[in-house]
Amino acid sequence: MKLFECEAKRILKQFGIAFPDGELAHTVEEAGAVAGRIGKPVVVKAQVLVSGRGKAGGVLFADNVAEAKNIAAKLIGSKIKDAMVHTLLVEEKIDIAQQMYTSIAIDRQRQTYVVLASLSGGVNIEEVAKTSPEKIVRHIVDFEKGFDEAEAKKLVRSLDIPAADRDMLSSILSTLYKAIISYDAELVELNPLVKLPSGAYVAADARMIIDDNALFRHVEFKDRVEDRIDDTPREAEARKLGLAYVDLNGDIGIIGNGAGLTMATVDVVNIMGGKPTNFLDIGGGAKVDVIRDAVTLVMSKPGVKAVLVNILGGITRCDIVAQGVIAGMNASSEKKPVAVRMVGTNEEEGNRMLREVGITAYANMEEAIARVITL
User: For labelling alongside 154, which of 45, 55, 127, 320 has CA 20 to 30 A away?
Assistant: First the structure.
């Protein structure tokens, strides 16, 4: 789950990271009031969950209250890369002596965190990595040792910064590691991390992404679980229903139980010449209403020509699946042909129930896929 900049800054402030003076504003008048309190030139930043908002016009500067209000009037209610702007962060405009990039992210190949730092801050770090990878220093974290200030100092020695700044930067990097561990985050990033003319370090921007699987430990975000900027409308609806769903570009609906089986089903449909329109995992032990919702969701997608249900019944009972499929077909305004492969617990009863409504259940996955492609 991506956090808004203001949320990431609120968290990192608790760990001692310094940020420019600023407040949130939801209206034009609030933006003017914040600018008036700061009493200096400000930056007005749209709070949206998209990258590149600055280039898209979502970060603008104002020299006084009147300009801040004019910018707020322009931004509130507008869209930045299709993301609606509801809230602004109004902050003091800071003087920049030097910009840096710092982050901690997951290195999935090494299955651990990687700490990154670069003197090329304030720009797209992906481009720096492509064109000048030597400008980025890296440290692969050993989970048994962790990443403390001593480890951070080893990393900082590789950067061309004054010796007097190394302790400060090392402290910031080790603090970021404490934050990412405490919040089960996949990413924490300061870009740019700014050195002021006074010599102090202030983070002008901040990003955090929390691991979805750990959200039960962070109840402060419970109302944000369904708010995903990257979701399609159907993915957003599936999230509200508690379904693991991903949109794909095809015309055969896919419903399975277990991520591995469902992914394998998508693959085999492709291999056999079909085009899956989605991935939908109902999970283990799904009840009738869950299966019903899954069927109606998939059938409602425009362009779906047929639906494949592929179930290995362990804790998921085949008779319950059959009830759910029948209920989903009855509830769907869009009626699409269905092929079912279903083996396991209460298989015979489930097959009998499906036969009574004219659906043949197959014991072999390839047979069911061949049938759904024909349908």
Answer: 127
Sequence-distant (6+) residues with CB within 8 A of 277 are 247, 248, 249, 250, 251, 252, 253, 254, 298, 301, 303, 304
Is residue 4, in this structure, part of any structural domain at all? no
Please enumerate in sequence order all residues whose Cβ is within 8 A of that of 258, keeping only pairs 6 or more positions apart, or say none. 281, 283, 284, 312
Catalytic residue among 151, 186, 189, 347: 189
Domain encompassing residue 207: 98-223
User: Would you call 101 a catalytic residue per the annotation?
Assistant: yes
Catalytic hit among 101, 201, 245, 362? 101
Give me Rg for the CA atoms of the chain. Answer: 26
How many domains is the chain built from?
Answer: 3
CB neighbour list of residue 100: distance below 8 Å, 6 or more residues apart: 117, 118, 119, 121, 169, 190, 192, 193, 194, 195
- 114 with 196, same domain: the answer is yes
pTM: 0.71
pLDDT in tens, 37-64: 999 999 999 999 888 898 899 999 999 9
User: Would you state the structure tokens that stand for residue 223, as one six-digit string?
Assistant: 């109302």
> Encoding tokens for residue 93?
């405009």
Structure tokens at 367: 């047979």
Same domain, 60 and 109: no
- The structure tokens listed for 262 are 């469902």
End-to-end CA distance of the chain: 38
Q: Is 201 labeled as catalytic in the residue annotation?
A: no
- pLDDT (tens digit, 9 = 90+) per residue, 119-172? 988 777 788 888 888 889 999 999 889 999 999 999 999 998 998 899 999 999
**Structural domain includes residue 258:** yes
